[in-house]
């Protein structure tokens, strides 16, 4: 009788444990590819690549992407043409944000910063990654927060985007994003201002890129300053707790 009671308790415990829900993982292997890739960096053309076999499983209804994914992480930095800021910022982003599709910061204060000497023997400058701002359909300034549209992936697995330079009046300019499923989007600096030529335009006011993030040296010590644009992505599926991550790469640069 005692043995039967013990067995009943063990069975009840097992049922209770299973009802709590065991984490469900999406089993993708090295044969399944999800990555960001340059098509023509000179033209600002890049792509998010998702293995066609996954697209087929989505099309058949076997997999359902989380609606906010594939997430498009499109960021920029004001950096030197030949310093190590890009590789350092990319490495830091990939380390910090690959752990969760929900960890994308909502405010620029949370973004990656790195202290780097812009040239041999120079004092360090604090570089940072920033989100873009754009004017949404209501005319309000909004931080760029887009998802790639699954139905717009090509049969070969590519979701191709482009980032180009569009001139405004008074020597100002914006960067224009074109992505399948969206009208062209004009991108502004994180503070809502247009881009300008000349590094001093990025360190004058309290909300400029090199005031909040100033290091030992002035931004004027940066050699051949550029706007560098970066792309990363992540995708998750309903009923699965893990996700695939396409590492950040530099996809375009524009001299200032």
Can you characterise this structure?
With 256 residues, the chain is an alpha+beta fold. 17% of the residues lie in helices and 33% in strands. The protein has four helices and 14 strands. The protein has helices at 2-19, 52-59, 85-97, 209-212, and strands at residues 34-40, 45-50, 71-80, 113-116, 125-128, 130-131, 133-135, 141-143, 146-147, 158-167, 173-178, 185-187, 225-236, 243-255. The protein has a five-stranded antiparallel β-sheet. Strands 3, 6, 9, 13 and 14 form a five-stranded antiparallel β-sheet that branches. The longest helix has 18 residues, at 2-19. It is globular, with a radius of gyration of 23 Å. Residues 1-19 have low confidence and may be disordered.
What topology, given as strand order, has the largest sheet? 1-2-10-11-12
The count of strands amounts to 14
The number of helical segments is 4
Query: How are helices and strands ordered from N to C?
Result: HEEHEHEEEEEEEEEHEE
| Residue share in helix | 10-25%
Rg calculated over all Cα atoms: 23 Å
Summarize model confidence as the mean pLDDT: 87
Outline, from the CA principal axes?
globular
**Could you say which structural class the secondary elements and strand pairing correspond to?**
alpha+beta
* Proportion of residues in extended strands: 25-35%
Summarize the biggest pleated sheet.
5 strands, antiparallel
**Stretches where pLDDT falls below 50 for ≥5 residues?**
1-19
* N-to-C span: 84 Å
């Amino acid at each position: 009788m005692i043995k039967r009671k013990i067995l009943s308790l063990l069975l009840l415990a097992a049922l209770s444990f299973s009802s709590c829900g065991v984490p469900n993982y999406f089993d993708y292997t090295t044969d399944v590819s999800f990555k960001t890739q340059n098509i023509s960096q000179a033209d600002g053309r890049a792509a998010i690549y998702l293995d066609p076999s996954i697209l087929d499983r989505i099309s058949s209804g076997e997999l359902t992407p989380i609606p906010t994914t594939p997430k498009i992480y499109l960021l920029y930095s004001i950096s030197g043409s030949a310093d190590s800021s890009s590789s350092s910022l990319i490495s830091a982003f990939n380390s910090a944000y690959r752990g969760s599709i929900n960890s994308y910061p909502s405010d620029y204060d949370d973004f990656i910063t790195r202290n780097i000497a812009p040239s041999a023997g120079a004092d360090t400058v604090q570089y940072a990654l920033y989100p873009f701002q754009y004017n949404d359909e209501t005319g309000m300034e909004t931080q760029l927060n887009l998802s790639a549209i699954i139905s717009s992936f090509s049969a070969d697995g590519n979701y191709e985007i482009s980032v180009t330079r569009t001139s405004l009046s008074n020597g100002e300019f914006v960067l224009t994003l074109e992505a399948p499923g969206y009208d062209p989007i004009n991108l502004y600096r994180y503070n809502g201002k247009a881009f300008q030529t000349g590094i001093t335009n990025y360190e004058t006011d309290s909300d400029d890129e090199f005031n909040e993030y100033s290091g030992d040296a002035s931004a004027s010590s940066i050699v051949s300053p550029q706007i560098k644009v970066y792309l990363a992505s992540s995708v998750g599926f309903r009923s699965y707790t893990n996700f695939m991550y396409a590492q950040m790469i530099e996809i375009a640069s524009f001299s200032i």
